[in-house]
């Protein structure tokens, strides 16, 4: 794959209604070229070797976006944001193994106009409340377009896939203080033509558009300075992700929590952090007939730094999954042989030195 692109934009600031208005407009372009080949994984009676060439194609994707954003700050209580983006995504494919005269490029073109708006109220010197709305536009990736069947009987890209389109709503509050920063947000997302796994087998995953889905949930994040040079960080997410048939979306845990307690030496050159991560169970298929168990893990990392003349040195030692716990790290959604579960790594250590 070869990838490139560029972005050109212009920003200007003006005074408006006793406040400050900042305008930004621009255009971006990205281009991706992919040479994809596929082989049988056997030759004669020998398995696990590169066999006959079954797929040879050149795929190209480019996107062209124009965007405009306006942000107005009253200087006291209100901050308003309004933005819009026009997107065009073009996918084309040329099959080099197709019969003469039938290998002309096939392709599909996606487009959308997506607005976004937000309003923030400075309700108190340390408290902001906000509301936001935006439309979402998610085109299938080349990996999601790659297969039309799990047995390879249907060649070429899955160009029948449509982009997912969503309406996103969020309400929240942010509190900022030298010793405590906290954010609480609630969200709701309504998605049409959700991109989801239809089936997966033998290393091939076929995607499809499914019925409407909804995601509703809340997020809490805080950072607090404690006595004895300690700092506490906490992040919690609750999400209910369901389809129109009231089935849970696979691979989405309803609860995720992260907590970390850090100590910093008075010189600031040494810090030690003990952290924990927990996830509740999550389903592995559309039928919700099987699920990966929830788990919790503990990790530890230590950071050092030294200054020697013009040189600064830093060392970081990290150990994940201190208890060497066995758990399901990822799943293969809708795997046709019920081989859904993939283990997460056991106790793992990292060392990084920087000069």
What's the gyration radius in Å? 25 Å
Q: Give helix and strand order, one letter per element, not per position.
A: EEEEEEEEHEEEEEEEEEEEEEEE
Number of helices: 1
> Which blocks of ≥5 consecutive residues have pLDDT under 50?
none
Strand order across the largest sheet: 1-2-5-6-7-8-9-10-13-14-15-16-19-20-23
Distance between the termini: 33 Å
Give helix % range. Answer: under 10%
Main sheet properties: 15 strands, antiparallel
Structural category is mainly beta
Molecular shape: globular
Q: For the residues shown, what is the average pLDDT?
A: 95
How many strand units? 23
What proportion of the residues form beta strands (DSSP E)? over 45%
Task: Characterize the structure shown.
- A hairpin with a 7-residue loop joins strand 17 (282-283) and strand 18 (291-292).
- The chain has 355 residues and is mainly beta.
- It is built from one helix and 23 strands.
- The two termini are 33 Å apart.
- It is 1% helix and 68% strand.
- The strands form five sheets. A 15-stranded antiparallel β-sheet has the order 1-2-5-6-7-8-9-10-13-14-15-16-19-20-23, with no helix packed on it.
In short:
The chain is mostly beta strands.
SSE layout and pairing:
Layout: E1 2-16, E2 19-39, E3 42-43, E4 46-47, E5 53-73, E6 78-95, E7 106-124, E8 127-138, H1 142-145, E9 164-177, E10 180-192, E11 194-201, E12 204-210, E13 213-226, E14 230-243, E15 255-264, E16 270-279, E17 282-283, E18 291-292, E19 295-308, E20 311-320, E21 328-331, E22 341-343, E23 348-354
Antiparallel strand pairs: 1-2, 2-5, 3-4, 5-6, 6-7, 7-8, 8-9, 9-10, 10-13, 11-12, 13-14, 14-15, 15-16, 16-19, 17-18, 19-20, 20-23, 21-22
């Amino acid at each position: 794959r070869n990838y490139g692109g560029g972005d050109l934009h212009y920003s200007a600031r003006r005074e408006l209604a006793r406040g400050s208005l900042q305008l930004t407009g621009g255009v971006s372009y990205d281009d991706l070229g992919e040479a994809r080949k596929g082989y049988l994984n056997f030759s004669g009676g020998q398995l696990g070797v590169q066999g006959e060439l079954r797929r040879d194609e050149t795929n190209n994707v480019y996107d062209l976006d124009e965007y405009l954003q306006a942000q107005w700050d009253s200087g006291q209580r209100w901050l308003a944001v309004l933005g819009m983006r026009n997107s065009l995504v073009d996918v084309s494919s040329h099959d080099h193994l197709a019969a003469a005269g039938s290998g002309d490029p096939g392709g599909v073109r996606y487009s959308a106009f997506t607005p976004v708006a937000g309003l923030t109220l400075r309700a108190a010197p340390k408290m902001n409340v906000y509301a936001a709305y935006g439309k979402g536009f998610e085109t299938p990736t080349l990996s999601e377009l790659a297969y039309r069947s799990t047995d390879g009987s249907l060649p070429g890209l899955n160009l029948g896939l449509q982009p997912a389109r969503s309406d996103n709503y969020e309400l929240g509050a942010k509190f900022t203080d030298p010793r405590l920063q906290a954010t609480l947000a609630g969200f709701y997302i309504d998605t049409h033509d959700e991109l989801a796994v239809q089936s997966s087998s033998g290393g091939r995953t076929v995607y499809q558009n499914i019925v409407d889905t909804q995601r509703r949930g809340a997020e809490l994040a805080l950072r607090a300075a404690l006595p004895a040079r300690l700092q506490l960080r906490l992040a919690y997410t609750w999400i209910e992700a369901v389809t129109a048939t009231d089935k849970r979306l696979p691979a989405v845990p309803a609860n995720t929590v992260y907590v970390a307690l850090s100590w910093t030496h008075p010189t600031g050159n040494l810090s030690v952090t003990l952290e924990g991560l927990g996830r509740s169970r999550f389903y592995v298929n559309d039928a919700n007939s099987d699920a990966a168990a929830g788990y919790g893990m503990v990790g530890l990392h230590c950071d050092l730094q030294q200054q020697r003349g013009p040189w600064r040195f830093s060392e970081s030692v990290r150990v994940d999954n201190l208890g060497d716990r066995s758990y399901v790290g990822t799943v293969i959604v809708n795997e046709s042989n019920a081989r859904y579960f993939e283990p997460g790594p056991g106790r793992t250590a990292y060392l990084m030195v920087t000069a």
